[in-house]
Amino acid sequence: MAGGGTWRVSGAVGRRGLRAAGRGGGAAQPGLSVRPQPPRSCEDYWWEWKHCRGLRHAFHHYYAHGELPACGRWRDDYEACRAWERGRAAAAQEALCKSERARVMEKQKYAPVWMLRKSPPPDWYLPLDQDKPN
Q1: Of 85, 82, 62, 63, whose CA–CA distance to 74 is shortest?
Q2: What count of other Cβ atoms lies within 10 Å of the Cβ of residue 93?
Q3: pLDDT band at 52 (very low <50, low <70, confident <90, very high)
Q4: 12 DSSP β-pair partners
Q5: Tens digit of pLDDT for each residue in 89-105?
Q6: Which of 21, 70, 72, 133 is the most exposed place for a label (fewest CB within 10 A)?
Q7: What average pLDDT does the structure give for the chain?
Q8: Rg value, the chain, Cα
């Protein structure tokens, strides 16, 4: 169904292109238990999985972290996204949203390496002492 087709979720009927509870944010529609769209397009999950499995990424990840990257989560997210698009499965929606929340929390877990300044140092305009020996 292209354009203006309808779909049925939990006894309520909605328009296909409606973005009220989808990617665009906004208020959720009353009576709907499944959001109309996944948080990202399914192709994003597919390309992240392909990138993760690549040799260059695997080498860099092994060099930086000492272990090979775990790419199974991207594949699981891709399959859940396709199930969500195909059948509007509530289980797939819940799994995908839970994975996205975990990804965001993991990203916010690390503190910055150094504290950011509120203002420049008081002697910022003075020349550097590069000529002096230590």
Answers
A1: 82
A2: 20
A3: very high
A4: 9
A5: 788 888 888 998 998 88
A6: 133
A7: 75
A8: 23
- Phi and psi at residue 132, in whole multiples of 5°? -75, 140
Residue 3 backbone class (left: φ over 0; alpha: ψ -120 to 50; beta: rest): left
Q: Which two tokens stand for residue 2?
A: 């292209």
- Beta-strand (E) ranges in the chain? 6-9, 12-15
Does residue 18 contact residue 4 with C-beta atoms inside 8 Å?
Answer: no
Give the sign of the dihedral formed by CA 112, CA 49, CA 16, CA 8. Answer: negative
Give the model's confidence band at 68: pLDDT under 50 very low, under 70 low, under 90 confident, else very high.
Answer: very high
Q: Helix, strand, coil % (nearest 5) of the chain?
A: 45, 5, 50
CA 38 to chain centre: 11
Cα torsion 89, 94, 95, 101: sign: positive
Following DSSP, what letter does each residue of 63-76 receive, concatenated? HHHSS----HHHHH
Beta carbons within 8 Å of 113's beta carbon, 6+ residues apart: none
- β-sheet bridge partners, residue 7: 14
